[in-house]
């Protein structure tokens, strides 16, 4: 089980508690319902479009459903060993274009950190290094 959260425009994220894969995909469903809806405030837009899942403070994915054909996913996996000690974390920011791609990333992340990282590597990393 991983932990789920909803983002907020101001202040800390809203903790939703533990979820299994089915609960995570239900969370995706809940946010997907607003994928192409216009929002009147930043707070409303963030609440409806941004959420994530985590194992701990240093192992998470954060999802932003901008529209039904543009989704961003951010992941900052730890680097192992000596490379990790020198360079620290590496941020991955990918752009997805379908619900199926998003479901695949969430499923991979729930399988393991490594599976999530490998799934993220299938897409160009848009993060600024």
UniProtKB/TrEMBL annotation:
Domain of life the protein comes from: Bacteria
The protein's name: Uncharacterized protein
Record lineage: Bacteria, Pseudomonadati, Pseudomonadota, Alphaproteobacteria, Sphingomonadales
